[in-house]
Design goal:
Layout: H1 2-8, H2 11-35, H3 52-68, H4 73-90, H5 92-109, H6 126-144
Helix pairs in contact: 2-3, 2-6, 3-4, 3-6, 4-5
Amino acid sequence: MEFFREIGANSVLWTAILGWFVAQVIKFILVLISSKSLDFGRLVGSGGMPSSHSSIVSAMAAAVGFERGFNSIEFAICTVVAFVVMYDACGVRRSAGQHAKILNGILQKDGEQTTKALKELLGHSPLEVFAGALLGIIIAAIVHF
């Protein structure tokens, strides 16, 4: 029981989860507005505006900063991890998504779609990463104050 009580009281964890959740809901709403269709996969899927990866790590880092101090070792660690995640979302995962799009196009041209299409929406544009990071920081500030 103590484990669940401690998890429930961990404001940094819940702030980070809230950052992820809000980003996913925003994605869902933006897709609903732009395509006028319900795509429940956007509630858990990667890619899109804003980056939930950026939101969750930025909310975590900011919450740690508010709780432990912005000059703490914990904040430094969380910030470095956040930068790695955001760099990856904008670089490696975005490139993988672009490669998947090209490969899917080649498979469709040949008319031999023998395998399931590769997932194309993997990474983020710099704007999506920035929006997610800003969202996470704002959520942490709202939760903290």
